[in-house]
Write a structure and sequence with these properties.
The complex is a heterotrimer.
Chain A: H1 13-16, H2 23-50, H3 68-95, H4 113-141
Helix pairs in contact in A: 2-3, 3-4
Chain B: E1 8-17, E2 27-36, H1 41-51, E3 71-74, E4 77-80, H2 86-89, E5 93-98, E6 104-106, E7 109-110, H3 113-121, H4 131-135, H5 145-152, H6 162-166, H7 179-189, H8 197-204, H9 218-222, H10 229-244, E8 278-279, H11 284-287, E9 295-296
Parallel strand pairs in B: 1-5
Antiparallel strand pairs in B: 1-2, 3-4, 3-5, 6-7, 8-9
Helix pairs in contact in B: 3-7, 7-10
Chain C: H1 2-29, H2 31-34, H3 47-54, H4 57-83, H5 89-126
Helix pairs in contact in C: 1-4, 3-5, 4-5
The chains are: A mainly alpha, B alpha+beta, C mainly alpha.
């Protein structure tokens, strides 16, 4: 009879788990979270905007969609989109092997592809922050 | 007189314990271990076994980062116990657990068989149409130093399982092949002697293959040999996309320096010295089970 | 290989969305870009301006394309996350079918709305 084993899979905590992880791990977690947030908004957006075919324009007038809390929520969705889009471009480049460098002979201390693509990560995060600032400025001035 | 003995400190080891016949799940047992500079986690475990608790179980062998046996979760991060200095990662406390994402056999011993099963799935060996040449070679394959570099980094993998334990996808997805087998696949795909890319793509391009990697990068961060599995998996994905879009460069497996199917020998390459041992012809039925020619001493 | 093919399209859809969704947001929320497609006052999302854009065939086609590409990218991404939970094969199949039906349904709804709004806008111009 085979001896009993104890399953030791981390589970969902492994997706977001803190600890001694690197920045790309958090970029990955945030990418998932922002993706879900944008998708949820998108599904509601489709339904709300489709109603215009029946002459219902829910986003006009002075209802819930004009309350500051909703406007702030909209800004968060924009922030999620800005992050997801910029990080997504980095991922496309990395996953097509563009920004990770060529295989090298591993000599200690090891240099990994993470370090090669790090400038790209920083660049897209700066673009995301600029978009956030522009979106915030536009929202406040409207 | 100057004291040359290294300074000793006591570190509290919090070790995960599990005995399948006595316990339903793992629990943590603490030990106070005198530690001095230069001691590795493996030394600390030996110290516990020798002086405090002889029932503690782990797996280790070479104690120098070559065999890949002693992968463990050290203060929440996978690494080799034999190459990790205690005082580099612990000031007062050190948690030592078995590698996650693998079932625990006992205490700190993970069951790595799931990883080796997945490794087998990607056909981690040179595949060629002229299979007889693999078993009974008539000459050397031609491969330049530059071509060697395309996969050399990935050959350093010692199958310790640290990358598999750090992978966030494997934290929930038991079917995902994981960084180690996919790196092995890319190692052979990038080898100019190999012609098995299409065969491997059946597995690496499936729903349990490379597309389940989202570049969290942990595998490369924890790899104790600098193999950079994240890089290998991205190169594998690139290969899959280019193949699908018919943009991949057509290439044939390399030819031989001499013998059947040989190419032209590059100038300035010295002639190989004569064999010191003679290859023995294996009977046909044995050849099917053995991939290496046996030798007999003169 | 089918999985790798779908994933390739998921990635391509993401790149398209980066530009097209960015453009969509710019038109709707940035006055500097939006005023080209919002001749009736400063508010690009007002009823009059919405009807003006609905009357342009480019926008109707663009909305439908954005809808299909966005839904494919989003729902495939959600499916990816769900399929990484080691569910039973029957459950995985059920999720795939459910998301497929949801996607097709929403594309249908959005297409109907875009085409109907296009008709309403053109009727308004003629009337």
């Amino acid at each position: 009879m085979a001896a009993a084993r104890h399953e030791n899979r981390i589970g969902l905590w492994g997706w977001i788990g803190g600890g001694r992880w690197g920045i790309e791990r958090y970029a990955y977690s945030l990418h998932r979270l922002t993706g879900l947030a944008v998708l949820l908004y998108f599904l509601l957006h489709i339904v709300v905007t489709s109603l215009r075919a029946k002459g219902i324009y829910l986003w006009t007038g002075s209802g819930f969609f004009h309350k500051p809390i909703f406007r702030f929520g909209e800004y968060l969705v924009f922030a999620a989109f800005a992050y997801h889009a910029c990080n997504g471009i980095r991922l496309v480049l990395v996953e097509l092997g563009v920004a990770i460098g060529k295989p090298i002979e591993p000599v200690f201390p090891y240099k990994t592809s993470l370090r090669v693509q790090r400038p790209l990560l920083i660049a897209v995060m700066i673009v995301a922050l600029l978009l956030l600032a522009a979106g915030g400025y536009s929202g406040l001035t409207q | 007189m100057q004291n040359t003995r290294p300074e000793q400190r006591t570190i509290r080891f919090h070790v995960s314990r599990f005995h399948p016949e006595n316990e339903r799940g793992p629990y943590v047992q603490s030990y106070e271990v005198p530690v001095h500079e230069g001691m590795t986690v493996l030394d600390g475990l030996h110290s516990i076994k020798d002086n405090l608790d002889s029932t503690l179980v782990w797996r280790s062998s070479c104690r120098m980062g070559v065999c890949g046996s002693c992968g463990m979760l050290l203060n929440g991060r996978p690494g080799l116990a034999c190459t990790t200095q205690i005082l580099k990662i612990a000031k007062t406390d050190l948690s030592v657990g078995p590698l996650p994402n693998f079932a625990i056999i006992r205490d700190l011993v993970p069951d790595l068989s799931s990883m080796f099963d997945k490794h087998r799935l990607v056909h981690p060996y040179v595949i060629r149409a002229d299979e007889a040449e693999i078993h009974d070679p008539s000459g050397e394959f031609y491969q330049s130093a530059e071509e060697l570099e395309h996969y050399l980094q990935f050959t350093y993998c010692i199958k310790c399982g640290c990358c598999m334990a750090a992978c966030p996808t494997l934290a929930t997805d038991a079917r995902y092949l994981g960084p180690m087998p996919l790196t092995a696949a890319e190692r052979y795909n990038a080898d100019t002697r190999d012609g098995g890319q299409r065969e491997r793509a059946q597995v690496t391009g499936s729903s349990r293959g490379a597309i389940r990697c989202h570049y969290a990068g942990e595998c490369s961060r924890v790899c104790p040999k600098g193999v950079d599995p994240a890089k290998a998996v991205q190169l594998l994905k690139r290969r899959l996309v280019l193949d699908y879009l018919h943009l991949a460069r057509k290439s044939e497996p390399c030819k031989k320096l001499k013998g059947e199917g040989s190419g032209s020998v590059m100038p300035k390459i010295a002639t190989a010295p004569a064999h010191t041992v003679e290859a023995r012809k294996e009977p046909e039925n044995l050849l099917q089970h053995s991939s290496s020619a046996t030798i007999h001493r003169p | 290989m089918k999985a790798a093919r779908l994933w390739t399209w998921h990635m391509a859809a993401g790149v398209v969305l980066f530009f097209v969704l960015g453009l969509h947001m710019g038109i709707m929320h940035l006055g500097e870009i939006g005023h080209w497609f919002a001749p009736y006052g400063n508010l690009a999302v007002s009823i009059a301006n919405s009807r003006f854009r609905d009357g342009m065939l480019t926008f109707t086609v663009g909305y439908i394309a954005l809808l299909a590409i966005g839904l494919f990218h989003g729902l495939y991404g959600l499916r990816t996350m769900l399929l990484e939970l080691t569910l039973r094969p029957a459950m995985e199949k059920a999720i795939t079918v459910f998301l497929l039906i949801l996607g097709i349904g929403l594309v249908g709804l959005g297409t109907w709305a875009a085409v109907a709004a296009h008709g309403v806008a053109l009727a308004g111009v003629k009337g």
